[in-house]
Amino acid sequence: MSAPEQEPADRAAVPAQDARGADVNTAASAEGAPALASASVVDVEAELQAALAKASENYELYLRAVADAENTRRRAQEDIAKAHKYGIESFAEALVPVADSLEQALQAQSAAPEAMREGIELTLRQLRAAFEKGRLAEINPVGQKFDPHNHQAISMIPAAAAGGVPPNHVVSVLQKGWRIADRVLRPALVTVASA
Fold first, then answer.
1. DSSP code of residue 162
2. What is the pLDDT of residues 146-168, one digit of tens each?
3. Three-state DSSP class for 32?
4. pLDDT tens digits, residue range 101-139?
5. What is the number of structural domains in the chain?
6. For position 140, which CATH number holds?
7. Helix-helix angle 89-107:113-133, to 10 degrees
8. Which residues contact 112 (CB under 8 A, 6 or more apart)?
9. Residue 30 to residue 22: CA distance in whole angstroms
């Protein structure tokens, strides 16, 4: 016999008492006697087997739910990894024609300056279209109020010498800035009119 099966026999050997010192086993057996008398061992064993079958079924359902949750977590991690790895794919597809145009320009040996200029302008339009598709926008703040979040002041000149530009406004742009959606990729390098 295993330990759990021996335990009820051990309890029956030592009478249990409540706080008043009354014998609990005799009180419980008196109340439950009709119920136990009407239930046969076969009925109790059948109920036990049904309860064990239900417990086994619930355990199987639990294991499946845990496996489904783990599979969902793993798939989500794989999707995130693929998004990081291939997230630039559409932007790269838009840049490939620009690279092709630049390679063709390098191969042209006897192109007239006007034709070369037209080719460069066409390539620049392709590049700007690719930037627009990738939500990359330039920051060109000439005449705008200086914004330290989008601009980086390289120098300041007096407002009187700025040609009518109000104080604390951008006089000239030394290098355009760039932003992706709402995030500044590179601030514009600017000269600002001082007061």
1. G
2. 999 999 999 999 888 878 888 89
3. helix
4. 899 888 887 778 888 889 899 999 999 999 998 889 999
5. 1
6. 2.30.22.10
7. 170
8. none
9. 13
